[in-house]
């Protein structure tokens, strides 16, 4: 079952390289059939598979609250949101497969702990208000990151992002609405909303990745038209959006240093704890072990479904063949 990645273009194909350079210079799209440099393929494969894993692992902190959502309406909305995230993971695994890596291999790497996913999903969701903070801040940061990716130079990735972004904006609004309702409720509910915002704020800013000085691959990704803005530019844009929206919520952001720098046109904020970021990324966050264990269990529990689907597909193929 294990397909190996097709990372074979070690020799430069001169015609292919010229064609690739022309497509990038025209800000047009590379498709799976086109020749592409091995490093471009590898970068995309890493980025898209990490993105897919993040969608799948990201289902856990919220799925955990479906049974405890405060009303039938909230349960239905949250369930739809978590299902959307599963769908995002599947589009993205499909996009990554066009680069020559099988989904089985990507899943094997994830459950073996060899693949990365966004560090944000290693934080626990402690109260119902966290569903609001995750939707507003985490899906909000995802939108800021992903809207420019709709124009990514790799066709299957850009196209997957268009659909994903439409759903993410629904996710952000449902999170905002949960926080708004809590904020306008009893003092205890308002405090619960504020606590959740306080806990998710800094980790959501870290979703944009390390500062530009410490992000060596960014420049190449921008030259290839995969990324359109640097980590710090996107983070600043996100802070500016949140500053406006938090006022409507009647809450505050847990950072008194936020200000707009009119010279640089950037939103400035306090230094983030990058040591914590590195620790969580290295597998030592509050929930890393639990997230992987749950994914492994779900994968094992789903083995019969995969076997049944494969057996059915085989039977259908035989039937089609004999009919022909
Ligand atoms: Fe998503
Ligand atoms: Fe989402």
Q: Describe it for me?
A:
This protein is mostly helical and 324 residues long. It is built from 13 helices and two strands; from the N terminus they run ααααααααααββααα. It has a two-stranded antiparallel ribbon. The radius of gyration is 21 Å and the shape is globular. One fe (ii) ion binds at residues 55, 85, 88, 164, 168.
Provide a concise account of the structure shown.
The chain has 324 residues and is mainly alpha-helical. It has helices at residues 14-25, 38-57, 59-63, 72-97, 103-111, 129-146, 155-183, 187-206, 218-223, 231-249, 274-284, 288-301, 303-323; strands spanning 259-261, 266-268.
- Tell me the structural class: mainly alpha
In N-to-C order, the SSE pattern is HHHHHHHHHHEEHHH
Largest sheet: 2 strands, antiparallel
| Fraction of residues in helix | 55-70%
Q: Average pLDDT across residues?
A: 94
Number of helices: 13
Tally of strands: 2
Strand content: under 5%
Radius of gyration: 21 Å
User: What's the overall geometry?
Assistant: globular
Bound molecules: fe (ii) ion
Q: Enumerate the strands of the largest sheet in spatial order, edge to edge or round the barrel.
A: 1-2
User: Kindly, what is the distance between the CA atoms of the first and last residues, rounded to a whole number of angstroms?
Assistant: 27 Å
Catalogue the unreliable spans.
none
């Amino acid at each position: 079952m294990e397909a190996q990645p097709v990372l074979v273009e070690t020799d430069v194909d001169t015609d292919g390289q010229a064609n690739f350079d022309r497509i990038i210079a025209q800000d047009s799209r590379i498709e799976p059939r086109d020749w592409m440099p091995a490093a471009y393929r590898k970068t995309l494969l890493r980025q898209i598979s990490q993105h897919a894993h993040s969608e799948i692992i990201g289902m856990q902190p919220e799925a955990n609250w479906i049974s405890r959502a405060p009303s039938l309406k909230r349960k239905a909305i949250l369930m739809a949101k978590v299902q959307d995230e599963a769908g995002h993971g599947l589009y993205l695994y499909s996009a990554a497969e066009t680069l020559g890596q099988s989904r089985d291999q990507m899943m094997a790497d994830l459950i073996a702990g060899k693949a990365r996913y966004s560090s944000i999903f290693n934080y626990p969701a402690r109260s119902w208000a966290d569903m609001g903070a995750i939707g507003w801040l985490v899906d909000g940061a995802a939108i800021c990151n992903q809207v420019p990716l709709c124009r990514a130079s790799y066709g299957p990735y850009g196209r997957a992002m268009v659909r994903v972004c439409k759903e993410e904006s629904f996710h952000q609004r449902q999170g905002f609405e949960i926080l708004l309702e809590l904020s306008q409720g009893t003092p205890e509910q308002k405090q619960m909303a504020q606590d959740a915002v306080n806990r998710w704020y800094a980790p959501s800013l870290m979703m944009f990745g390390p500062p530009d000085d410490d992000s060596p691959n960014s420049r190449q990704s921008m030259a290839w038209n995969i990324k359109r803005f640097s980590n710090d530019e996107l983070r600043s844009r996100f802070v500016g959006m949140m500053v406006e929206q938090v006022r409507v919520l009647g809450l505050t952001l847990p950072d008194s240093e936020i200000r707009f720098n009119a010279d640089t046109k950037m939103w400035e904020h306090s230094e983030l704890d990058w040591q914590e970021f590195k620790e969580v990324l290295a597998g030592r966050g509050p929930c890393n072990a639990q997230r992987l264990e749950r994914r492994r269990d779900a994968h094992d529990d789903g083995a019969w479904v995969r076997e049944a689907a494969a057996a059915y597909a085989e039977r259908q193929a035989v039937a089609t063949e004999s009919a022909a």
